């Protein structure tokens, strides 16, 4: 058996990381696994059918209700126009809690009258392409970078089990410091090499 020389620091670090990799949760992914931060981000819906609608005017972004509140005169004209031919139409104020009853008509009015530009968005789960073999890295990354990660940032596990070189490298790191309480799949797929 061959040996390599390591500083005490490098040896201790390798043993510590090897132990952490083997004993961390795999979140149901096949060995070898890694983590990324994931969150929901607003992505433009090119068909204009997104679940979130924004109104843009003079380089500013508004919800339809915010736009109504800032353009109360236009909003009141819209309500009057609708009531002229539909007496059952609700006569709501722009700050009404029932605003959603007339929101789609208001959005259409904004477009027809050219009051602003309408863009729709959907919440889409996206991963940050800043991976780590260690879930703890991603937890730290989320803690310190949450402000630009989007809605509900969380750890997201992935597998690289079809990547032969990655599997070999990670298997060697695991075998350097075999853990009795290692993940079941690591025991099944990595430590069997000890028997060869």
Low-confidence stretches are: none
What percent of the residues sit in helical stretches (DSSP H or I)? 25-40%
Number of helices: 7
Q: Which overall shape is indicated by the principal axes computed on the Cα atoms? A: rod-shaped
Average pLDDT for all residues: 92
What's the alpha carbon Rg, rounded to whole Å? 28 Å
Strand fraction equals: 15-25%
Number of domains: 2
Element-level helix/strand string:
HEEEHHHEHEHH
Number of strands: 5
Spatial ordering of strands, largest sheet: 3-2-4-1-5
Structural class: alpha+beta
For the report, how would you describe the main beta sheet?
5 strands, antiparallel
The termini sit apart by 14 Å
Please outline the helices and strands.
Elements lengths: L7 H16 L9 E12 L7 E6 L2 E3 L1 H7 L1 H14 L17 H11 L3 E11 L7 H11 L5 E9 L4 H12 L8 H6 L7
Describe this entry's structure for a reader.
Helix content is 39%, strand content 21%. With 196 residues, it is of the alpha+beta class. It has 2 domains: 1-32 and 163-196, no CATH class; 37-159, no CATH class. Strands 3-2-4-1-5 form a 5-stranded antiparallel sheet. The chain is rod-shaped and about 90 Å long. The mean pLDDT is 92.
Give a nutshell description of this structure.
The chain is α+β, with helices and mostly antiparallel strands and 196 residues long. The protein has helices at 8-23, 64-70, 72-85, 103-113, 135-145, 164-175, 184-189; strands at 33-44, 52-57, 60-62, 117-127, 151-159.
């Amino acid at each position: 058996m061959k040996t390599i020389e390591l500083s005490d620091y490098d040896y201790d670090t390798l043993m510590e990381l090897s132990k952490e990799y083997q004993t961390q949760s795999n979140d149901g992914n096949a060995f070898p696994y890694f983590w990324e931060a994931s969150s929901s981000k607003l992505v433009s819906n090119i068909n204009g059918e997104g679940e979130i609608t924004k109104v843009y005017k003079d380089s500013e972004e508004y919800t339809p209700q915010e736009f109504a509140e800032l353009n109360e005169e236009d909003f009141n004209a819209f309500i009057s126009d609708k009531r002229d031919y539909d007496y059952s139409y609700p006569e709501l104020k722009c700050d009404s809690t029932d605003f959603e009853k007339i929101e789609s008509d208001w959005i259409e009015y904004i477009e027809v009258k050219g009051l602003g530009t309408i863009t729709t968005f959907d919440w889409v789960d996206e991963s940050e392409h800043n991976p780590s073999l260690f879930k703890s890295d991603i937890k730290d990354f989320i803690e310190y970078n949450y402000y630009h990660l989007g809605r509900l940032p969380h750890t997201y596990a992935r597998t690289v089990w079809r990547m032969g070189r990655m599997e070999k490298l990670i298997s060697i790191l695991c075998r350097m410091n075999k853990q009795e309480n290692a993940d079941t799949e690591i025991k099944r797929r990595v430590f069997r090499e000890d028997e060869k």
